[in-house]
Specification:
- Chains A, B: Keywords: Aminotransferase, DNA-binding, Pyridoxal phosphate, Transcription, Transcription regulation, Transferase.
- Chains A, B: One of its GO terms (molecular function) is DNA binding.
- Chains A, B: InterPro entries: Aminotransferase_I/II_large, HTH_trans_reg/aminotransferase, PyrdxlP-dep_Trfase, PyrdxlP-dep_Trfase_major, PyrdxlP-dep_Trfase_small, Tscrpt_reg_HTH_GntR, WH-like_DNA-bd_sf, WH_DNA-bd_sf.
- Two copies of one chain form a homodimer.
- With about 475 residues, chain A is an alpha/beta fold.
- Chain A has three domains: about 60 residues, Arc Repressor Mutant, subunit A (Orthogonal Bundle), CATH 1.10.10; about 120 residues, Aspartate Aminotransferase, domain 1 (Alpha-Beta Complex), CATH 3.90.1150; about 240 residues, Type I PLP-dependent aspartate aminotransferase-like (Major domain) (Aspartate Aminotransferase, domain 2), CATH 3.40.640.
- In chain A, about 40% of the residues lie in helices and about 15% in strands.
- The first copy, chain A, has 15 helices and 17 strands.
- The first copy, chain A, has a seven-stranded mixed β-sheet, sandwiched between helices. Chain A has a four-stranded antiparallel β-sheet with strand order 13-14-17-16, covered by helices on one side. Chain A has a two-stranded antiparallel sheet with strand order 1-2.
- In chain A, helix 2 crosses helix 3.
- Chain A is globular.
- The termini of chain A are far apart.
- In chain A, about 55% of the residues are buried.
- At the A-B interface, helix 4, helix 5, helix 7, helix 8 and helix 11 of A face helix 4, helix 5, helix 7, helix 8 and helix 11 of B.
Chain lengths: ~475, ~475
């Protein structure tokens, strides 16, 4: 690390720790050079770096200020209007294209939801796992308990206190990522041809699970700030035989909203009235920008009707394939599905993660990632507002590292992605997030990486391709 | 290692390498003491240890001989006679009991099919994985390719040449153990309420997958030496709308047989005539006592109708959760199921295993394990013949580490297991291996461990409990 980077890093840490608040004036260049015992030009370079990274802004003739990060995008997407009829999910080909797209280093990946895997705060986890491999002996090679490793389930129960949940370790079953949690939950509460209500847009992995299990999706209008419309859901439930609700109410993928607490409670009351279960995907919950994180729907559930699904794939690393589910009253059905589908969860990473949490490494890592993604969000929104066509609507994520963008004109983002790929940038086309082929003019972009010239250029490339397609239309 | 153990080990190695053949006379005690430069009593102790472990036998006034390992049990089980009607599988409670049974160190586990995890030949694998954790960087933490790691699929394709299969790496999808391979295959080729024909007795994990996916099992009479009866299967297929066949034709679990090559071919012809797929569970195939291993049904398949399922859970270690499937013409359906159920297979162990195979570690380990299990089999058969009631029927495994035992009297092995557990021994009750509650007087025992006094005592304890139950009956 160069000297000016060290100085910038020190300021960054103080902003993260709220020592310097949003909008506050920062020390002058002279003061900075004195405090850190560096030259004036080094202090200048440090501020320039922080400006590039979106931490600070300079105001002419006044100095440097912490960026005010509460500024929402100029225009949010509208309430979504999906086809409100139960339908078979399609789009598998498009999802497959996304999953199998080239991942070479020369492509800027804005498409898949992969967290920061180069963070120094992950190193202790790797060391713990390395040691376990070396010294763990035969037990680390054997099947784990069907429910998962005791030590990990204990730590998950402790972590979930932040979300308002009082879970016993035996309420929890570990899984092969959140995906197994979701599909085992779906299978546990439905039969073939059943109707499942979902928020819309919705995570394509959930939609594909609905498809593969022979179920039908009923997409419900969803607000970009408050989530699934309870009113629309109630109307749909009067009209259709909904057997389960599958939603991501906290730091939603792809929209980024967190449902207000009252909405979460109203949703739970509604399902209680109709006696149906909620499958709550909480995978981004720990990456909420507020601390403590928002409560889960599960935290209000006294009837065991919520199947809370989560994973360490977004908070730590997806390649570990460690997720979990707290299935409430459906524990036996989920355990059966878990057994027949994967038999048990990999042993070593369960023990590794448990130890990492116990040592405080998880909390440290999450704190860093929250601050990082929060800051990246604002820079990313700024870029999209700057480079994309006027009238572009942008989500305002409250956690995680995903941005939803709706273009003002009717251009197809599947084709857009083909064009951007040729320029070395991948995006996730909006159509993946709908059962009925909606959102063709939308896209999801991740802002995992620290803002950099490379990423700003990637956004510029996408904007250029959009411009091309728009001018071809007219 | 003590001196006499070293000497015994040297002899053992030479028997493994067929330097000393079955039935051959071994050097005298005096000769042994001279060759190895040890005392007479050390040489005597070495032979005594080898005798205890079942490698050698002493013939009075003649000397020590390599045990003749071709001796089959006195009485094999009869051709099975299951209920030949499609039925819903039950027995989940019993399976759950087995899976959740205490695994403390003071219990001799003869119940679950766990391989030797303390083998020194596994150490290089652990070292490779330890290094990957330390130096692998971010890529080892990310999602792997949906099909699995290229490097591992290449190695699997190479290994499978021994089974007569010419697979391209892209024909292979890695999975969370063989269990995911089996359930994804089942789901890919069936719809709810479909009928699946199975060998009988049959692996309980397959039966439970049939149950959980809403399918019906049709159990087909099965011979303890040649496997599923082709004639009975043909009759059943004329009578019932069979949609798939799920069998373990090589080193069967629980019976241990390997279907003769002609039977494998005839089975394939039959399914070709009816145009239905075969799900071939080959998880124990590499642990066949013959070298090269027997051909798989897949090796004769020119129509892509066989879904070959396997795993490193029995050949290396189950806690890694790395299996694979070569789904033939069903590759798209299986890939979809794989995606919605686990999204991707853990990254690090895939790379670790690939490197282990590439370095020759896998072949070395398998060679050791084959010899070890082969030898344990004969000792185990000897003990069961010695201690169990007259008329007990015993399987004659051709690979793997599992023995099937049929008691002459009608005692319930679920109750037997409850009694043996109190004496610190677990067995797998036969009823788990049937959809229709057959095999109540049968049990499966593993012989993973090196023969020892502890294990001989465990068999004696089981025999004592049987005796108790028999005398209570009369």
């Amino acid at each position: 690390m160069k000297l000016y980077e060290k100085v910038a890093h020190a300021i960054e840490e103080r902003i993260e720790q709220s020592f310097y608040q949003a909008g506050e004036k920062l020390p002058s260049i002279r003061a900075l050079s004195l405090t850190h015992e560096v030259s004036i030009s080094t202090a200048q370079e440090a501020y320039r770096l922080l400006e590039d990274q979106g931490w600070v802004e300079s105001r002419p003739k006044s100095g440097f200020y912490v960026v005010n990060r509460q500024k929402a995008p100029q225009q949010l997407p509208d309430l979504s209007r999906p086809t409100q009829t139960p339908i078979e999910v399609s789009q598998w080909e498009e999802v497959l294209n996304l999953l199998c797209a080239s991942t070479t280093a020369d492509i800027v990946q804005l498409s898949r939801a992969i967290p920061d895997l180069e963070a120094p705060t992950l190193k202790p986890l790797m060391r713990i796992m390395s040691d376990l491999n070396k010294h763990g002996g035969g037990s680390i090679l054997s099947y784990e308990d069907l429910r998962g490793a005791d030590c990990l389930r204990l730590q998950i129960a402790r972590l979930m206190v932040d979300s308002g949940c009082r879970l016993h370790p035996d309420d929890i079953i570990t899984t092969a990522g959140c995906q197994e949690a979701l599909s085992a939950s779906l299978r546990a509460v439905t039969q073939q041809d059943d109707v499942v209500a979902v928020d819309s847009p919705s995570f394509y992995g959930s939609l594909q699970a609905i498809k593969a299990l022979g179920l039908k999706a009923l997409e419900i209008p969803t607000h970009p700030e408050t989530g699934i419309s309870i009113e629309a859901l109630e109307l749909a439930m009067e009209q259709w035989p909904v057997k389960a609700i599958l939603i991501t109410p906290t730091c939603n993928n792809p929209l980024g909203y967190t449902m207000p607490v009252e909405h979460k409670q109203r949703l739970l009351e509604l399902t209680s009235r109709y006696d149906i279960p909620i499958i709550e995907d909480d995978i981004y919950g720990d990456l909420s920008y507020t601390s403590p994180r928002p409560p889960s729907i599960k935290s209000f559930d006294t009837e065991g009707r919520v199947l809370l699904c989560s994973s360490f794939s977004k908070s730590l690393a997806p390649g570990l394939r460690i997720g979990w589910v707290a299935p409430g009253r459906y524990v036996n059905q989920v355990m059966h599905m878990k057994y027949v589908v994967t038999a048990s969860t990999p042993t070593l990473p369960q023990h590794g993660i448990a130890e990492f949490i116990a040592q405080g490494g998880y909390e440290r890592h999450i704190r860093k990632m929250r601050a990082k993604y929060h800051q990246s969000r604002d820079v990313m929104i700024g870029w999209v507002e700057k480079y994309f066509p006027k009238g572009t609507k942008i989500s305002y994520p409250q956690g995680g590292f995903l941005l939803w963008v709706e273009l003002p004109t009717d251009i197809d983002t599947v084709e857009l992605n083909q064009r951007t790929m040729k320029r070395g940038v991948s995006i996730a086309p909006g159509v993946l997030f709908s059962a009925s082929g909606k959102y063709r003019n939308c896209m999801r972009l991740n802002f995992t990486d620290k803002p950099s010239e490379k990423n700003e250029n990637a956004i510029k490339q996408v904007a250029t391709c959009i411009q091309e397609m728009v001018s071809e239309l007219t």
